[in-house]
Amino acid sequence: MYPTPTSAELAGDGVSYIISETDKIDLATSVEILGRELGVKRLALEGGGGINGSFFAAGLVDEFSVLIALALDGQPTVTSIVDSGLAGKVELSLKSCEQLA
After folding, report:
1. CA distance readout (Å), 92 to 25, 60, 70, 86
2. Would you tell me how many other CB atoms lie within 10 Å of the CB of residue 83?
3. pLDDT band at 81 (very low <50, low <70, confident <90, very high)
4. Which range, of 3-17, 25-39, 64-78, 85-99, averages the lowest pLDDT?
5. Which residues have CB under 8 Å from 28's CB, separation 6+?
6. For residues 16 and 37, what is the distance between their CA atoms, to the nearest angstrom?
7. How many Cβ atoms are within 10 Å of 55's Cβ, its own excluded?
8. How far apart are CA 63 and CA 40, in angstroms?
């Protein structure tokens, strides 16, 4: 694990950041702040099932791209691609599918 940088270290390195005043992060407000303060118009999540599921549950996903590769991961602690109890709550439609070499 890497140590969590302080706000002074981030600022010193020229890194933009948002600090939550509570332990629970309001994702909708965070996305709104990113747009307003930093001009972010599109956000790519490159996390695991937890963060993907959290953004889906907050209604913040309008596009979901999945790359399926031949690999095995038999670790029992690995979460799914979306892990948040969303069954029956989110409807997806396939826009395209492409097979790569």
Report:
1. 25, 13, 23, 12
2. 16
3. confident
4. 64-78
5. 58, 59, 60
6. 10
7. 20
8. 16
Structure-token pair, residue 81? 């691609």
Size of the chain in residues: 101
Q: How far apart are CA 3 and CA 10, in angstroms?
A: 12
Q: Which amino acid is at 45?
A: L
The reported pTM is 0.72
pLDDT at 41 over 80: yes
CA angle 35–93–88, rounded 5-degree value: 90
Q: Which two three-digit tokens encode residue 85?
A: 């109890």
The pair of three-digit structure tokens given for residue 36, joined into one six-digit string: 């307003």
pLDDT > 70? residue 1: no
